[in-house]
Specification:
The chain is of the alpha/beta class. It has helices at residues 12-24, 39-48, 65-74, 92-100, 113-123; strands at residues 2-8, 29-36, 53-56, 83-87, 105-108. A five-stranded parallel sheet has the order 2-1-3-4-5.
């Protein structure tokens, strides 16, 4: 099964690195990769496209990752989409809030291919993607 991915980050470089990392993961078939520079763009893409997993930064202009997740939780068509936070920020309080809202994983920048594989493995139900 190919997974459609949405990468949300205000840095084009970070979006490219995440996309490249996903492309080289063994055992994960990637379908379409969508990109957005903030949460508002991401919600628009989610309205128009089938997405299986969202990788999102926290700190972004226009709409940050936390507000995006809050909005996704409110929408029946988006509330079950797994969100993985990819950020330099990892304050205990903020992460607890995000996990309470339904975020499924956290990857600290800078990251390794192995870390991305591990988090995806956990979310995809134990499929070994490392």
């Amino acid at each position: 099964m190919a997974y459609n991915i949405l990468i949300v980050d205000d840095s084009t470089t970070t979006r490219a690195i995440v996309a490249r990392t996903l492309a080289i993961l063994p055992g994960v078939e990637i379908g379409q990769v969508f990109q957005a520079s903030n949460g508002l763009e991401a919600l628009d893409l989610l309205d128009k496209n089938w997405v299986d997993i969202v990788f999102a930064d926290i700190n972004m202009p226009v709409m940050d990752g936390m507000a995006m997740v809050e909005e996704m939780v409110k929408r029946q068509d988006m509330e079950k989409i797994p969100v993985i936070i990819v950020s330099t920020e990892g304050s205990q309080t903020r992460m607890e809030d995000l996990f309470r809202m339904g975020v499924r994983g956290y990857i600290r920048k800078p990251f390794t291919v192995e870390k991305v594989g591990q988090v995806l493995c956990d979310i995809l139900g134990g499929n070994d993607v490392r």
